[in-house]
Amino acid sequence: MATEYPHKIALLGLGTIGLSMLAMHLRRPDTSITVYDPRPDYESQIRTVLPGLLDSPPNESNIVDHLIATNRLKLATSLPEAINEATIIQEQSPEITTSKQVLWKEISKLTGPETHLWSSSSGIAASAQAATCETGHKVAERLLVAHPFNPPHLMPLVEVVPGPETQPERVEFVKQYFRDIPGPATDSSSGAGDQTMSHYRPVTLHKEVPGFVGNRLAFALLREACHLVGEGVVSAQDLDSIVTASLGPRWAGSGVFESYHAGGGEGGIDAFLQKLSPTIQDVWGDLGQIDIAGEQKWRDVVVQQTEEAYGPYTPQTRKKKEEMLRDVVEMQKKKWGELS
């Protein structure tokens, strides 16, 4: 008799984020995942990419077949088949508002009122996605954004962004779901990683804003980085060195406010802002105002220098970067555990 899993997840969209999310969901022993993507090659993508994302023994060459045989993983050939028995539906469709609206409108006609509806969108609000759905299907009350950072099977952050009509219990459910997911293995042969504290850290946003918070911070830094490189102040590679040799290590242990709170000494962040206010204001007033769709000089410089510095992004490069991410996150968990 097949094992019954309490969480039946329909994962819609199997691109880079979707495949990483699949690996993440599979860490919970109480989930079964049905996947669907309209691309004709999505099964071959799963078989090629998924084994490398899983915390499985190196000799587990038939891991995808094993997951299918044990009903942990099902490959659907249509949207109705994928969501038929789902308790959670999570979409990773293209970042186009109208496309997501069409998808949720179709889903709303095929699911009951208890199904949890999650979007992995990196910037489109739940209220906008649900705007064209009929009110009787209560999509707006059930839909929220659960935005992971790439790659989700490693990165701890999940931005939970409810819409104005999202029920509070739906928010609490998704937060607890992610808190209960075990972290990745630190060694592919040693099982799960450090479980002394939760790996995933869902953070609730209190207002819907374009891009949410993580990407707004990242894109603000990207804009100034592009401005500085475009103006010839620093090279793209040296700017990266500045980040990885200063801001990166500091932010791995302390966020923006905690860092500057410490920088103010006994007076904390208030003292820091008072002491540095002239310099801070000079910098704020001089930050670059560039248009990504406008004049292309800065863009050409950034692209050329970045490509010259790093070349193509290969699977080997990705693997090395993911190993480093694992180490950094496990270090964070260890240190926070000592401080708690």
Automatic annotation (TrEMBL):
Keywords, A to Z, come to:
Cytoplasm, NAD, Oxidoreductase, Phosphoprotein
Residue span, 3-hydroxyacyl-CoA dehydrogenase NAD binding domain: 8-181
GO terms under biological process: fatty acid metabolic process
Question: Where's it mainly located?
Answer: cytoplasm
Q: Which InterPro entries match?
A: 3-OHacyl-CoA_DH, 3-OHacyl-CoA_DH_CS, 3-OHacyl-CoA_DH_NAD-bd, 3HC_DH_C, 6-PGluconate_DH-like_C_sf, 6PGD_dom2, NAD(P)-bd_dom_sf
A Pfam family of the record is 3HCDH
**Recorded coiled-coil stretches:** none
PROSITE patterns from the xrefs?
3HCDH
Query: Which principal EC class is assigned to this enzyme?
Result: oxidoreductase
Where in the cell is the protein located? Cytoplasm
Name the residues annotated as site: Important for catalytic activity: H147
Keyword Cytoplasm attached? yes
Query: Where does it sit, as one GO cellular component term?
Result: cytoplasm
Record-listed E.C. numbers: 1.1.1.45
GO MF terms here are: L-gulonate 3-dehydrogenase activity; NAD+ binding
What positions does the domain 3-hydroxyacyl-CoA dehydrogenase C-terminal occupy? 211-276
| Entries under PANTHER family matching the protein | 3-HYDROXYACYL-COA DEHYDROGENASE FAMILY PROTEIN, LAMBDA-CRYSTALLIN HOMOLOG
Oligomeric state and partners?
Answer: Homodimer.
Output this protein's name: L-gulonate 3-dehydrogenase
